[in-house]
């Protein structure tokens, strides 16, 4: 079934060879650009337009026409290319329309080599724009996907190319070479004031402020009277992402939901900011003219400006609500399909837990949400093995912090095959005895929690020696052979009430474990209040920076890598009164005993 996409929606590509069919109510000029991970082109040689030469993997149409067929072979594009943008522009010829708002909405269809239509997109809501980025083909986790953009530019092709990274001179030259306007023709002005580009995050980027505002504020306009609304987006399917296994597909799908929510909120906030900025400009213009500063005309002008601002915000909210509803529907389908390491403790999959035969690719540490829709929570999945240690901040709730640490340690232990992961606990004063009961009562720990300065020193020294031995073996290029008594499994050290019970030597060793341990299978989970360590001054600053901070209560301290949204983190705890964690730990202990007997 063909997927009929709406603005901002993405869809997987079944292969790397597709044909893009363009149908418009007037002659349009197609184009394509090859960009990096942030969508920026390297220069004019990364732009394909009629008359400017082709690009590897992109078959270009010869010139303006109402219909086009563009052949795309994504295997043939350079390896450095992460994004392929498909452009449409109106030629500046006598008698031709100068804006897409005066034409029938362009329609694009992606067709597989066999002729089956994959997805289609009608670019609605255009007004004064004379050039648009219609589609984006992009890599994610080694696979290609498409996204319906419909991002318009009132300044035409030159403005579009400048936004993708070309200099003003190169962008103007390419646009002029395409079709120079006749003498005396006045070009359309940009529909919104020019604004600086967003900071480019490492994984992806949202639309620039002006384009995102325009898309969210104008593309939500209802269809003309008498027109037929396109059908809604296809029903979400769990595992609808690239990957060799269902686990990998679900992982990529959750990450995709996280990215899509980040972009949707960024577009909405940009639209609101744009509406506020335009309102300020219009009110300033009213005040700047003495003839309209006061009186009924001035009041009417201010009311009209506020009404326009409210209309833009309402349209942006309508677009956001549609995106959020789609993501909520996808979340409701994906959540029940998650395997134990990805699922919440309330999931039924934990009731049928059995020891896995292979470690998972990731583990869930909690949930993330944004204030625009707090109930829409995205699982926070972190790849395994952990590259950073974890720090559960106990500043506000010491008992709650230990509960979070126990839940995280139990999840990590239960997510690994029997004999491949071990948990050790440091509880110098014995203050976490009650919270640690699921571990101590079940027998999931190989030894009781280390207490007192001597117990802390012995356990930390043993793990430090293990790291040294493994590193020495790796540096020598030989097999990793540990002496008798050393557990070959990955190790997790849970430290409660740090730095109580630690002296200068053990603190130095702990810092060493935090820095070097993850590379050789020793991981750190710290339960601590940073203020308790203030007497050490800056000595422990590298330790805190090396750890991923988590909190026992919701806190908006995590930022995404694209636009830096302040995401609220919520810890992953079992429902009140549930015995799922003790029950799973008892099963883990029983499985380990069976495993140990089989090795004798």
Would you kindly provide a written description of the structure presented here, covering whatever features stand out?
Strands 1, 2, 3, 4, 5, 6, 7, 8, 9, 10 and 11 form an 11-stranded mixed sheet that branches. A hairpin with a 2-residue loop joins β10 and β11. The protein is 33% helix and 22% strand. It contains 11 helices and 20 strands. α3 packs across α4, α3 packs across α5 and α4 packs antiparallel against α5. About 8% of the residues have low confidence. The two termini are 57 Å apart. By secondary structure, the chain is an alpha+beta fold.
List keywords for this structure.
single chain; 600 residues
Q: What general outline do the C-alpha atoms trace?
A: elongated
Q: How large is the radius of gyration?
A: 29 Å
**Share of residues in strands:** 15-25%
Which structural class should the secondary elements be placed in? alpha+beta
What are the low-pLDDT stretches, counting only 5+ consecutive residues below 50? 180-230
- Strands, count: 20
Number of helices: 11
Q: How is the biggest beta sheet arranged?
A: 11 strands, mixed
Mean pLDDT score: 83
| Terminal CA distance | 57 Å
Estimate percent helicity: 25-40%
Task: Write a short abstract of this structure.
With 600 residues, this protein is an alpha+beta fold. The protein is 33% helix and 22% strand.
Question: Topology, pairings included?
Answer:
Blueprint lengths: L2 E3 L4 E3 L4 E19 L11 E2 L9 E2 L5 E9 L9 E7 L17 E5 L5 E6 L8 E10 L2 E11 L2 H8 L4 H11 L30 H10 L27 H43 L7 H39 L27 E8 L8 E6 L5 E5 L4 H18 L5 E6 L10 H6 L9 H25 L13 E9 L5 H13 L5 E7 L12 H6 E4 L4 E5 L6 E6 L8 H20 L1
Helix pairs in contact: 1-2, 3-4, 3-5, 4-5, 6-11, 8-9
